Amino acid sequence: MAEPPAGLDDIDWAGLHHAYGSAEDVPDLLRALSSSDEDERNAALGELFTNIHHQGNRYSASAAAVPFLLALASDPGTPERTWPLYLAVALAIGFDESHLPSGVDITAWRDEVARPRSTGLAEEARRPDGWAAGLAAYDAVRAGLPTVLDLLGDQDSEVRAAAAYAAGWFPEEAAAALPALGALLDVEEDPNVVAHALVSGGLLDGRTLIPRLRRHLAGAEPLPRWAAAIALARLGAADAPVIAELAACSTSPPDEPAAFLDGDLRLYSALTLAALDEPPREAVDAVLEGLSRTSDDASFSMAAAALTLTFRAPVLPLPPFADLTTAQQRTVRTIAELPPASWQWINLMEILGDWGLPTDRGECRRYAGIG
Q: What are phi and psi of 85, to 5 degrees?
């Protein structure tokens, strides 16, 4: 069992805040992450994900917790060391879906935080869950990135994969992270670790990795092949083989798990295709086929990707169905034919509303000419 991180009691946790008020409970929750009792660890992790990372929001206590999470992740005696690392990344970036497929636009983020201070809206930036609290947590993880990069050499493959995932979100540290990811790829044999390193290399604009990415794209391992296609598209190298791989994965993604987008590789593939300047017909076909294979909460993000791919921007007011392009008509029909379980989610209705489409299943079906 690991020793609880040193220095926890040196922080004025009662003077910090999380989603439910005073953060005085945070040090005990962090200590519990090193417990030998699995139930205790899981309960503490759940609490931390809901108080210092409440629905993606971060607070003054979030940045303060980061060094201790990284210390736990780097201590071989900590049980399940990947979770403190994944929580640290979540504190840094919120939900990764808000940054994909392009990666963290840190310049825009810093400008956004600075702007309220210069326009008299400083109060917004100072809110406990405001932009500045998120950036403070991001910078806390950035300061600990040497620890993350050291974990790329860990004996535990799951820790290496988590570290590779974490490394991709800090473009200001690409000069250190890309060589470390390259060194990992020189010796790594675990396909899961390789895949995370390849995607992160792409997010960091690692163009020197392109020859290596091409080799993995032509390889036999499904997950690294998918990751290579994702990275090559991010680097502006989406030629026919890349598009073919992304199209295949939009329809039938690899079965292997990955951390990005909570493992929804179909969605990541579709978002990547939707980000192309001129998506080919095969991309549209694949994304719509993939969307048709979803149900429940897996449908709404895929629906958003399909709408982006075929509409590019909302068409308001909504024209008659006959005036839509063939691809747009197919998209609306595919959404209208999603099962009732997909239509129970307010998320889908909000997405459709943003695009000017009917938010009622029956109305959408009538608009699309489906009896």
A: -70, -45
